[in-house]
Design goal:
- With 338 residues, this protein is of the alpha/beta class.
- It has 2 domains: 150 residues, Quinone Oxidoreductase, Chain A, domain 1 (Alpha-Beta Complex); 155 residues, NAD(P)-binding Rossmann-like Domain (Rossmann fold, 3-Layer(aba) Sandwich), CATH 3.40.50.720.
- Helix content is 30%, strand content 25%.
- Helix 4 links the parallel strand 8 and strand 9.
- Helix 3 crosses helix 4 and helix 3 packs across helix 10.
- The protein is globular.
- Bound molecules: NADP nicotinamide-adenine-dinucleotide phosphate (NAP).
- NADP nicotinamide-adenine-dinucleotide phosphate binds next to helix 1, helix 3, helix 4 and helix 11.
């Protein structure tokens, strides 16, 4: 079987492939024949060596897959050979076959495609965890989300609708205005003064989701109303393009604000740091997944797929994201060749 690896830290040329034996599941694991693997922005950052929580090089990225169960280890419950499933792999999902802990594998309802399933876990889990679990979201709450046309952005828009939100402001590149508006968000072109726009419109938002980092974080904080919550969950401004730029990464880190709790107290605002990969309570994740699966089955959420690339074209797929071309989720096709 084939597996994608990041041979070393760097640009798109750091991506390589290995051919190896099909892995066997240990106790409590299942082996899944992968049909789709989701690409996340974090995969690009870890290729550039800018992601603290990644394994040592060489390694295989890939947090999420959908596919068909081929083999069971001992002591596996609730999963059978032949099941269509979605799985949270942690790392290693960019592969034709993966072995995963059975508690991170969920059978798919018949009406959910492999595309939709692989596009769901990371983006919707993150948005759901932020809004519902951390955010204590109430109907009518307003939201600001950046990278609004991307994976987490479109997931946030759909969850906001399902939760009967108030205004949802989405920043994204100017050429994505129509797409962002079609998702029910109010588009603000990337680089425009979103703080002024939001203050003028509604005084401030209840929830601001910032995956950008750097000085952008303080602007998101300023866009909050009294009692509002900021969630810092990424650092995309550490990335300049396909090639790693240490200066850009250092500048992101240097300009990210350090919050003063006394000033936060006086303005009644909260700041959460959110990293689903470092979240420790598995029961919470499983509960989120079950809630999201229900929402998906009844059509309340339906992941937007930008494109599906054969896995051999993984560098092209990642370049498409670096070029800010995606509207929705980008997937890799690992299904067995016909
Ligand atoms: N903490 C967590 O647990 C967690 C989980 C999931 C995702 N995240 C973070 O959430 C963000 C969104 O993730 P995603 O996977 O859904 O990705 P995504 O939003 O689909 O990422 C691609 C989009 O990001 C925007 N972008 C901003 N800065 C960029 C840059 N330097 N290079 C290329 N594109 C850039 C571009 O859209 P525009 O040009 O339209 O802005 C691009 O189309 C990322 O920062 C990611 O690390 C965090």
């Amino acid at each position: 079987m084939k597996r994608v690896i990041y041979a070393k830290k760097g640009g798109l040329d750091a991506i390589d492939f290995v051919d190896e034996e099909v892995p066997s599941p240990s106790t409590g694991q299942v082996r899944v024949e992968v049909h789709r693997a989701g690409i996340n922005f974090a995969d690009l950052m870890m290729r550039q060596g800018l992601y603290g929580a990644a394994p040592d090089f060489p390694f295989t990225p890939g947090y999420e897959v959908s596919g068909i169960v081929q083999e069971l280890g001992d002591d596996v419950e609730g999963i059978s050979i032949g099941d269509r499933v979605v799985a949270l792999t942690g790392f290693g999902g960019y592969a034709e076959q993966v072995v995963v802990d059975y508690q991170r594998v969920w059978p798919l309802p018949e009406n959910v495609s492999f595309d939709a399933a692989a596009a769901m876990p990371v983006t919707y889990l993150t948005a759901y965890h932020i809004l519902v679990y951390l955010g204590n979201f109430k109907s009518g709450d307003s939201i600001l989300v950046h990278h609004a046309a991307g994976g987490v952005g479109t997931a946030t828009a759909q969850l906001a609708k399902a939760l009967k939100s108030g205004n949802v402001y989405g920043t994204a590149s100017a050429n994505k205005a129509a797409f962002v508006e079609a998702q029910g968000m109010i588009h603000i072109p990337r680089g425009d003064d979103f703080v002024k726009r939001i203050k003028d419109d509604i005084g401030g938002v209840h929830h601001a989701l910032d995956p950008v980092g750097g000085k952008h974080v303080m602007d998101s904080y300023r866009a909050l109303r009294n009692g509002g919550r900021l969630y810092v969950f990424g650092a995309s401004s550490a990335v300049k393009g396909p090639k790693r730029s240490m200066w850009t990464a250092i500048n992101m880190w240097r300009t990210t604000p350090r919050f003063d709790p006394i000033r936060m107290m006086n303005s009644n605002k909260a700041v959460f740091g959110v990293h689903m990969g470092m979240w420790k309570d598995e029961d919470v994740v499983r509960q989120h997944m079950l809630e999201l699966a229900k929402m998906m089955e009844i059509g309340l959420i339906d992941p937007i797929i930008d494109s599906v690339y054969r896995f051999e074209d993984v560098a092209l797929a990642q370049k498409h994201i670096h070029d800010r071309g995606n509207r929705g989720k980008v997937l890799l096709d690992f299904s067995p060749a016909n």
